[in-house]
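Q: Protein A?
A:
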Amino acid sequence: MDYKRDVTFPYSPSHHLFTLFSHNQKLQKKMLLYSSPSLNSFLFNSNSNSNFLSKNHKSLKSAPQTLRVVNNNDVDAFTEKSGYLFKLSSSEVDSLNDYDLKKIAAIYKRKPLILLRRLFQIGSTFGRWLAARYIDSITEKSDLMFKIRAAELRQILLELGPAYIKIAQAVSSRPDLIPPSYLDELSLLQDRIAPFSTEVALNTIEQELGLPIDMIFSEISPEPTAAASLGQVYQARLRSNGQVVAVKVQRPGVQAAISLDILILHFMAGVVKKAGRFNSDLQAVVDEWASSLFREMDYIKEAKNGLKFRKLYGGIEDVLVPYMYLENTTRKVLVMEWVEGKKLSEVKDLYLVEVGVYCSFNQLLEYGFYHADPHPGNLLRTYNGKLAYIDFGMMGEFNQEFRDGFIEACLHLVNRDFDALAKDFVTLGFLPPTSDKEGVTKALTGVFQNAVAKGVSNISFGDLLGNLGTTMYKLKFQIPSYFSLVIRSVAVLEGIAIGFDPNYKVLGSTYPWIARKVLTDSSPQLRSSLQALLYEKGVFRIDRLESLLSESLRARTEKALVKSQLEDNDSKVAVKQILSFTLTEKGAFVREILLQEIAKGLDAFGLATLDYLTSMANTSIPFAASSSSSMTEEDMMNLRTFRRLMLILSGFQKNGGSPVELKRTVPSKNQNMHSEEASLIFYQFPSAEEILPILSVIPELPPELQQQLLLLPADLAGRLISRVTARTIRRVFL
């Protein structure tokens, strides 16, 4: 995909780009300047030389690394209220490039006053707000003051800075959990945060890239186009190739502020765990989140993440991943392709939500490299109808073992195999290997039975987590630190979708792909799981295979995410999809199972036919003794399975499109019961008139699949002959 071609503009970029050297008086009065005797009293004037800006930025490179506020009225709330956190030496700042709790603790051990001041600021700020909420409740003004308190909470989070804003961003994506007034206010934290000084931003660009601004960009916007918790974005034009790009500049002081807040949160997590007797290692969860946050503050890592994300998922239909200019990127400055669009949450495009779900499925279950911060501010609908991902700072890795374990857990949950689900929780690290499996199975049955009974399309990920909450505490569940970002990613995605459709269920939308992956994946772990699922205690569960096949047919590919209702219900299309799947290399494992069960069914069908003919012959002969059925209970089960398979392969045409479940009979010495049931099943098989039209799909298959299909009769005949021979030997000689 040509990233240059896919960028669209509703208007000329020059409308809000300005030539770098056309001095803007408004810009000159809204600045944070580095402390420097030569600049403290200096003001821009419109008659100055056009090279003034770049020259003076050069002179700033040797200035001390301490920020001074020129005009408090123009300073963002974070800098104004928490600017004291920035006072770290260059060596201390450099030591915070990567998350290391010991280094952070060592720094603030030498700065106890800053630590105490921060604790007092956090406690007093939230304390005043909680006190106001309490007064509202006792004076019965809660409803009246609700919106006001929501706005106050947003302002508090802005003052406290990025760590708290990040937490709020995650919460703001859950309209099913947060009241509307709070949701509206917290949503403003996604990309509408007060920016810091453009002068500081331009100076940072020059310091980081080591070149004057005019040598890098021919144009740059006078004000940031968006400001977030960690940085702000400018629109610019590269001088080297004329491409319009987004330039993200890191907010000054974020590393110092976040490191101290994480130290405090880590300590509080330990206190809460002990006081509340939490089973989960809350400090490990904080560490996992902190590590991802520190990686997010390294824009070189973000650029590499973006390039990897583009390589893996940029080819998906209607997904746009902007190009990263790694050569123009440093730890604090990121240059990437400019993307025009609106937030996905504002346009309510259900098609793109499905595209996002499909893309997330690929991230979590195919490659394990996933976007861990998919809040609405990071997902755009471009003006040419694509879903654009624009932030790659917070990414997660999901290794193969855990991916397979997650798929197995979903599979066992939907099929109500709670015993296997308990084992999955051990594999995923939720439970220790020494857990009481029987007790866990019983508890999980109680928690999930009702939720799953509604059907997979009605299972809410949020509800599952909520229902599991009490049980997790009782059974000493632990949420592994690696899984916290996965849960957040899935929960946020469902939250965005719920904003469009209150009945949306992300698991219901994802399960068809899970079913398809289980049926097609070559992973030994998943194949073993599929084998165990389909053969419960040695008995083939045709209902489970039927469910997996029907669900997998609902899995929309990236080339056809939306199909017409007519096509979805067309039995010929269903049969064609089943054949196309089972005849490919990916479907070899399922094809082997189908051939094995069809051979058993044909054998049982032959016995039933023989019994039927014998019975008919006896009825035509006067005084002939009645003959008993030669079919065993196993033969009857195989016959039932064969009937279901024929209904599947005939497109579910019989009985209004859904095969009728025939209950298994209790083994009986009276073989006449088998004869009667066999006769009933015999008459319920699809007729030739129903099967023959379906054969018309064969010419529509690709030549290589037709060739594979021609090999099946001989394979099936060999299996059937082997089975008949083995049974004959058993009955004659044993």
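Q: Protein B?
A:
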Amino acid sequence: MADRLWPEAEGCFQDTSFLIWGTGGLRQLIDRLQGAGLTQLDPADDKSSPIQIGEPFRLRLDWWQDDRAGGSGLKVWAGSMEGVRIARAMLAALSDPSFGQPGLFNVGMVVNDPNHPEKKVEPFYFDSRRAQNAHSRDVGFSLNDLKLTSTAFPAVEFFCLVGLQRCLPLPTDRPRMFDYFTWAKPIPAPLLPAAVTGHLPAVGARRYRFENMYRTGQKKHKAFSVAVPLTHGV
């Protein structure tokens, strides 16, 4: 997203942070995203319609419909969950001033529907902090059945939805298991897909593995598990 506004932008991982150079501020990026808006491209499909991020980003999000590159295997939402509604709610939540500064991925809150503020919106479940206690057997009861609210991390949910369009992790020979790589040297946006899949070892690549795990007994809804580091080549 930063590259769409500032073509000279570069980024890399440093310890537990992701740094971006050659750009404006986080608040400016978020404001432009919110101004661009999200369009549901298939009006007949509230659940899985592709999403268009408007000008100046002009980015179509549809990786969850991609069977060839493996994107469909990363889809976490199902059933009555509406992809566009969740995305809009997570983006709207970024209006909070806490998201305009470093640490935005650790800002948690109960997220409400911007069109119906009295209604909560559950996240996609990209954030592994939710996956650890996602199943009712983990907490001893069902949050949904009791209509309880719970904390989501909107920046993680929204930017993961966007990032997977260009940066799909590698599927492994194990069901629902995926590998990805981080990098320690700044690179421009066109190189991100190669870096994420480990094809740029010279940038200080580190390999991680996570599972797109089932979080309900029906084995429809999923959640990303905590990623674990691996040695290169595993």
